[in-house]
């Protein structure tokens, strides 16, 4: 049984949406996705019948670091992959990670996953996919290694910045739209990492133990939607184990769920170095071992010869690859990499994403937008004001053609309307673990189980930087403190040890706020950070992100009121890390195994540990998902734990009020769609993009549910108009089902439910009660 999603997407490349000045929810996508993968079955049978076993097996493993073989004897091109997911990665030598130093491979740096999710706009996600695909084509790529859509289970996750949300519905809507944007423009997606790669700590060996219900309702829906509705052509199996089996050889995951339940017709590739067996993998449904041939090369030929695996299975795996190969036109070699990848159209898309992603968390005394009639000197303080975020840390980065930093954006937009004075304030260059004497400890070594900071004298550089910051703050009318994390602090391959703001920045911030109370703190981060000390000294707080090529311009446009902020948090912001579910239940960090060197780092370094890791000899560590379905706001709501900022939260410069919340009927059955309507009133002076959210609360249920769950939302422009704007949101009854573990199926529970109209998970504005009948 399939669950359905409804959503709107933008049609057409080149269609630019002007933030809150236009409508991000434009026409529905009408393209018919009926199985483009199934158009060539006969032709594929013909191709396979002419192939030798050696040719077939040659397709099932990496040829180069980012390619796998086609069928050269029949003129069928290799598959060319591109990291993904937030910009087309630079060209590397075929068998190493060394750059080729081309002059044409500078790409657009798109805002990373959590930024995209903060737009809460499927239209924007569609545009994002379009832009990625256009640049992939210019580079001769067939498949983008993205979107990355694992649920953000822990606030400290190293790849939270790359993933979308803690909520499966929000993640699903955006991932489907991203996928359609990419695949409508001639490139395949490879949705990753399938599945339950929700932590970086020991990702190459950890065994995730999860209930079938939590798996089906929380962790798998974004993948299911991307496959079923987005018709994703590719899936990447994750590094970890689930319930005892590596994802790359997990029969239940790859065969029973992905291929049988969801009807997936495309190809599965392993994460880099994530294959651990020959027969088990190929039988379970893995198509390509990347990037090597340790298991699906000669070892596979030997296994066929020994009768351990039949050639029919090999044929099936080859067929699945050929379906994708024939659905995506290869870019002729003489057309790839002949012109610069990054194009102004894509920079415009990156700008739109960034503009709609920025979240205004606090604005006491309407400090924002900056009133340039009154504010004559602005102190911009912070390492992140002038830091590039396209690269850093482990994993895919983007060789960006350019990146507008916050400082550059402010200078561009403010020009001579005010004087900008800059001080770095703190530096991210210092070795981790210092500054104990400054009062806070910092970095990845915060409150929980980390190294205890020994009191030390603040070093001279830190003192000098802080003094300079205080000096410029004194001389200014207001301060924009641009702090947060960076791409080395939030990185693939490891999780943060705490949410603490790194590099001593809170001490500098407090010193600055003492001499100038008009401080706006801007958190440039892909994940939640600890804002407790920031709250106490800053009247205004903004969450920005690793926000791409045009990030600085977008931030400046929000801060100066050129556009009103319309981003909404894609995750909850806890007061303390210990409040969040995986920490509160003691299921993360795991203590049953030492932290291994990361599998990818080992692969890149090709050191002795790599061999051990790749063999999978060390299946270490168990992640017991004991919070079950209570991930993110589901936990905080159900356990009545307060949060600093709830999921879905974000202010604008105009206040929006809702009224007339209603459903079209009072009773619904399976297969029907609930249509809810409301009126949104703009009470302010700014045209405002707003995101009404509808959650479902079960009133008299016999089974356990989270207190409420997001089931519908829409991003809409609310113009300044005496008449309110009518908004409609559709919720398929199908999406209210739960996974019945005994029946092994989706089941609709009859009974009373409440639809909650909300500004965010913590602010319910209206209720409607309905009955669901079977
Ligand atoms: C990451 C993948 C990525 C691959 C290739 C792996 O370490 O987990 O997301 O696509 O490397 O760069």
Automatic annotation (TrEMBL):
| Gene Ontology molecular-function annotations | hydrolase activity, hydrolyzing O-glycosyl compounds
Q: What SUPFAM superfamilies does its record include?
A: (Trans)glycosidases, Beta-D-glucan exohydrolase, C-terminal domain
Q: Which Gene3D superfamilies match?
A: Glycoside hydrolase family 3 C-terminal domain, Glycoside hydrolase, family 3, N-terminal domain, Immunoglobulins
Keywords, sorted A to Z: Carbohydrate metabolism, Hydrolase
Q: What are the BP-aspect GO terms?
A: carbohydrate metabolic process
State whether keyword Transmembrane helix applies.
Answer: no
Cited InterPro entries: Cellulose_deg_GH3, Fn3-like, GH, Glyco_hydro_3_AS, Glyco_hydro_3_C, Glyco_hydro_3_C_sf, Glyco_hydro_3_N, Glyco_hydro_3_N_sf
Q: State if Ribosomal protein is listed as a keyword.
A: no
Which residues does the UniProt record annotate as the domain Fibronectin type III-like? 690-761
Pfam families on file: Fn3-like, Glyco_hydro_3, Glyco_hydro_3_C
Span-the-membrane segments of this chain are: none
Family membership, please give it. Answer: Belongs to the glycosyl hydrolase 3 family.
Q: Which PANTHER family match?
A: BETA-GLUCOSIDASE
**Protein known as:** Putative carbohydrate-active enzyme
Organism lineage = unclassified sequences, environmental samples
């Amino acid at each position: 049984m399939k669950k359905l999603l409804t959503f709107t997407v933008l049609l057409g490349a080149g269609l630019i949406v002007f933030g809150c000045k236009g409508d991000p929810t434009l026409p529905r996508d009408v393209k018919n996705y009926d199985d483009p993968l199934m158009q060539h079955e006969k032709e594929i049978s013909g191709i396979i019948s002419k192939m030798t076993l050696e040719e077939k097996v040659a397709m099932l493993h990496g040829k180069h670091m980012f390619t796998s073989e086609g069928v050269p004897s029949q003129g069928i091109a290799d598959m060319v992959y591109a990291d993904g997911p937030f910009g087309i990665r630079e060209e590397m030598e075929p068998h190493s990670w060394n750059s080729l130093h081309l002059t044409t491979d500078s790409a657009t740096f798109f805002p990373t996953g959590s930024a995209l999710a903060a737009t809460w706009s499927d239209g924007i996600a569609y545009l994002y996919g379009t832009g990625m695909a256009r640049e992939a084509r210019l580079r001769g790529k067939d498949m983008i290694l993205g979107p990355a859509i694992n649920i953000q289970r822990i606030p400290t996750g190293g790849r939270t910045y790359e993933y979308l949300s803690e909520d499966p519905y929000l993640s699903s809507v955006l991932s489907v739209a991203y996928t359609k944007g990419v695949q409508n423009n001639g490139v395949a997606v490879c949705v990753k990492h399938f599945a339950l790669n929700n932590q970086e700590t020991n990702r190459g060996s950890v065994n995730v133990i999860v209930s079938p219900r939590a798996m089906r309702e929380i962790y798998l829906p974004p993948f299911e939607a991307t496959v079923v509705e987005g018709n994703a052509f590719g899936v990447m199996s994750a590094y970890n184990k689930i319930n005892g089996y590596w994802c790359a050889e997990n029969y239940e995951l790859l065969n029973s769920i992905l291929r049988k339940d969801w009807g997936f017709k495309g190809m599965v590739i392993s994460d880099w170095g994530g294959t651990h067996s020959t027969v088990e993998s190929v039988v379970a449904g893995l198509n390509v071992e990347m990037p090597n041939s340790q298991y699906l090369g000669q070892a596979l030929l030997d296994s066929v010869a020994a009768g351990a695996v039949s050639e029919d299975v090999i044929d099936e795996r080859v067929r699945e690859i050929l379906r994708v190969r024939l659905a995506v036109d290869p870019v002729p070699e003489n057309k790839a990499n002949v012109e610069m990848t990054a194009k102004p159209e894509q920079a415009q898309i990156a700008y739109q994403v960034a503009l709609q992603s920025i979240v205004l968390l606090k604005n006491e005394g309407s400090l924002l937008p900056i009133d340039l009639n009154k504010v004559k000197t602005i102190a911009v303080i912070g390492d992140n004001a002038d830091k590039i975020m396209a690269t850093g840390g482990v994993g895919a980065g983007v060789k960006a053609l350019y990146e507008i930093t916050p400082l550059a954006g402010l200078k561009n937009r403010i020009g001579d309307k005010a004087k900008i004075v800059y001080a770095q304030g703190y530096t991210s260059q210092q070795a981790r673990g210092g500054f104990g004497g400054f009062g806070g400890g910092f970095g990845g070594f915060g409150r929980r189980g980390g190294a205890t900071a020994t009191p030390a004298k603040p070093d001279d550089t830190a003192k000098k930087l802080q003094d300079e910051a205080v000096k410029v703050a004194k001389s200014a009318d207001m301060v924009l403190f641009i702090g947060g994390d960076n791409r080395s602090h939030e990185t693939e391959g490891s999780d943060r040890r705490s949410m603490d703001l790194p590099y001593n920045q809170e001490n500098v911030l407090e010193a600055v706020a003492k001499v100038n109370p008009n401080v706006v703190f801007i958190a440039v981060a892909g994940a939640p950070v600890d804002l407790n000390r920031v709250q106490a000294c800053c009247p205004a707080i903004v969450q920005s992100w690793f926000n791409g090529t045009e990030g600085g311009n977008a931030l400046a446009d929000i801060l100066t009121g050129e556009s009103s902020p319309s981003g909404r948090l894609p995750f909850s912001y806890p007061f303390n890390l210990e409040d969040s579910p995986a920490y509160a239940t003691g299921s993360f960090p795991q203590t049953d195994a030492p932290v291994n060197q990361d599998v990818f780092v080992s692969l890149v370094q090709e050191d002795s540990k790599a061999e051990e890791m790749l063999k999978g000899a060390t299946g270490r560590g168990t992640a017991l998902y004991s919070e079950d379905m209570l991930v993110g706001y589901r936990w905080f709501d159900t356990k009545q734990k307060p949060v600093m900022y709830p999921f879905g939260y974000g202010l604008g410069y105009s206040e929006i009020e809702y009224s007339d919340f209603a459903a079209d009927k009072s009773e619904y059955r399976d297969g029907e769609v609930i249509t809810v309507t409301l009126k949104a009133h703009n009470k302010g002076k700014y045209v405002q993009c707003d995101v009404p959210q509808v959650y479902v609360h079960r009133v008299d249920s016999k089974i356990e549910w989270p207190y409420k769950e997001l089931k519908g939302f829409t991003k809409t422009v609310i113009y300044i108009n005496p008449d309110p704007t009518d908004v409609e949101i559709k919720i398929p009854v199908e999406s209210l089902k739960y996974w019945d573990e005994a029946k092994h199926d989706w089941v609709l529970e009859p009974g009373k439910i409440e639809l909650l109209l909300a500004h965010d998970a913590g602010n319910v504005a209206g209720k409607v009660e309905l009955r669901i009948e079977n």
